[in-house]
């Protein structure tokens, strides 16, 4: 199997099950979002028990098919079992190097980071991409201001590993995040809480594709991971 590659621009939908929501409704929204332009789906549902999470992950893989990359949050065993494109590891989740042993470069490994120290560590460990947040205030953390696009500029000036911004991003903010140096954005509510998830995804896709993204040279001393060549 050839190495997985990160898309040139990433629109990642992170799953979320509202209380009492039928998983079938979520799957319909995911399918609509992929039609609209989401090219990555991160399956995240910490409220689900082990079997239910496995069933959801398998259903997402089946629903998405080859139209988007499916990443499984933290659960390396589930990612392997459902033949996902890779895993998205929390900042305190499994080690990147340990996850890499299972399928080498045949799958993608993302790491969530919230600091320059975390980003540098993830790059040294050869994560394929970083999910950086929290960039804007979110409903789950009201009153806590986000770090903003300036945080993206700070991190992308120091690492070469692709960065995906997350946290309170909507269609009006997506372009700013990409213009600051991100490869793309990850969203939840901007798609799942929209009246028309397909249209919401399409508008986000347009925003990140049209963003003015200046490529900046890596600062002296930054690590250049071996996987970066294949991800560009």
Description:
The protein is of the alpha/beta class and 232 residues long. It has one domain: Aldolase class I (TIM Barrel, Alpha-Beta Barrel), CATH 3.20.20. The chain is 39% helix and 16% strand. It has helices at residues 23-36, 50-64, 76-81, 96-103, 116-124, 149-156, 171-179, 189-192, 197-210, 228-231; strands at residues 10-14, 40-43, 69-73, 86-89, 108-113, 129-132, 163-166, 184-187. Strands 1-2-3-4-5-6-7-8 form an eight-stranded parallel beta barrel, surrounded by seven helices. The relative contact order is 0.17. Mean pLDDT is 90; it is low at 215-232.
List the keywords.
about 230 residues; alpha/beta; TIM Barrel; eight-stranded parallel β-barrel; 10 helices; about 15% strand
Strand order within the widest beta sheet: 1-2-3-4-5-6-7-8
Runs with pLDDT <50, length 5+?
Answer: 215-232
Oligomer: single chain
Residue share in helices?
25-40%
* CATH homology superfamily name: Aldolase class I
- Strand fraction equals 15-25%
Structural class by helix and strand composition: alpha/beta
Determine the CATH topology: TIM Barrel
Look at the structure and give the CATH class. Alpha Beta
Radius of gyration over all CA atoms, rounded: 16 Å
Largest sheet: 8 strands, parallel, barrel
Order of helices and strands: EHEHEHEHEHEHEHEHHH
* Principal-axes shape call: globular
State the CATH architecture. Alpha-Beta Barrel
Number of domains: 1
Number of strands: 8
Q: Roughly what is the average pLDDT, rounded to an integer?
A: 90
Q: With helices defined by DSSP (H or I, 4 residues minimum), what is the helix count?
A: 10
Terminal Cα span? 19 Å
